[in-house]
Amino acid sequence: MVEPRPVRPTVPALLDRLEPTPAFVADARGDLHALTAGFRWLAAPSGLLDVTRPNLARHAFGDARARTTFPEWERVADERAAALRAAADLGDGGAAVLAEELSITVGADFGRRFTAGSVPGGTGVERWRHPEAGELRLAHESLTVPGDEDHRLVAYLPADAATARALEVRAYAATS
After folding, report:
1. What's this model's pTM, rounded to 2 decimal places?
2. Cα–Cα distance between 59 and 175 in angstroms, integer?
3. Residue 131: which H helix or E strand, with range?
4. Are 152 and 25 in contact (CB under 8 A)?
């Protein structure tokens, strides 16, 4: 297994400044390295954070709760597989190992998406179903973190008024 590259101390400090925004730092293969409390609140019910080393692709394909969490799971799965393929194509050995693992454990559903060769999106809108807040429409931006670590910071912002209200209620509850 490839060990994760450490996150510079300034990166978690930046995430602290983004609170209560749901945000995380991941590497190219989708391993999470740092996250905000806002993202922990968003993602914890999905099961993503139930493991020692959370990974976006492994969660999307390996945890049945992902299909409930993402009403547009098919699109999310396509994007997770495309991101893993892009990392593997750029020589990330850990991404290649994970792709092989998912090809064995998930089979054709993953393999078809991985070989499709689609380009991962750095921005867009994801729909999340949250047990407390209901359905959320979250616009996400993915920003490259400078350095040799190949990290990216992903932040989720409300894509509509209902989501904005739900996140405001969550932020208020977290501070009271």
Report:
1. 0.91
2. 30
3. none
4. yes
Cα–Cα distance between 40 and 44 in angstroms, integer?
5
- How many angstroms separate the most distant Cα atoms in the chain? 48
In this model, does residue 176 exceed pLDDT 70?
no
For 4-32, how does the pLDDT look when each residue is reduced to its tens digit (9 = 90+)? 567 889 999 999 999 999 999 999 999 99
- How many Cβ atoms from other residues are within 10 Å of residue 140's Cβ? 17
Tokens of 40: 């922990």
Alpha-carbon span 161 to 158, nearest angstrom? 7
DSSP 176: -
What string of DSSP letters covers 137-158? EEEEEEEEESSTT-EEEEEEEE
Which CA distances in Å does 69 have to 59, 60, 73?
11, 10, 8
